[in-house]
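Good day; I would like, with your permission, to put a structural problem before you. A protein sequence and the structure tokens that stand for its backbone fold form the material at issue. The record follows directly beneath this note:
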Amino acid sequence: RFQLDQQNIKFLTTGQAGMLLRLSELGYYHDRVVKFSDVSTGFNAIGSMGQALISKLKEELANFHGQVAMLHDEMQRFRQASVNGIANKGKKDSGPNAGDEMTLFKLLAWYIKPLHRMQWLTKIADACQVKKGGDLASTVYDFLDNGNDMVNKLVEDLLTAICGPLVRMISKWILEGGISDMHREFFVKSIKDVGVDRLWHDKFRLRLPMLPKFVPMDMANKILMTGKSINFLR
């Protein structure tokens, strides 16, 4: 997947070259997440729930960039200390030991967690391409209960963000009997051109492809009936 520059590889040992190739993998997954979070690429999820996912991906990228900035600061502090002939030993930090030289070994020890997180973000975002609404929520939901606590927490955070617009749509429906769904993401739909004698039966129906897996059918029917009742009482 990656190759080192042939002009500079001669200055590296075999071990150093191998470590650099491993570190480059993190950059690859980072760029993949960036692509999925860019609406201009056409690889992202769509609709208001898709926008919520994109915002969450951008938040994850911002957190990662913050960690990289901390590593850069550590390296700059060491360089300055080296120039001054001072090494600030013993200072605690969340990255590699502050005051110590930043080595490839230390970077490899640090990059494992960010790499794992970026790999899963890429896998989830890839599965969510061009999906919306309940279908999008179901796709993310499928990544739960995989046996990894970090991944489960990540998926829960993504679902919480994605379901924000869905909760607002449900609230508007059951409290006001109205549907605000310009992207056709909601699992309740309004049918046009329904005869007066069929309004109660046919005006509003479930949009089953947009029903999230974690919403049981009986609950969906209750939500449908509640909103219908409010709508007809208005």
Observations:
- Residues 3 and 21 are 7 Å apart (CA to CA).
- The radius of gyration is 25 Å.
- Residues 9-165 form one domain.
- The longest helix spans residues 47-84.
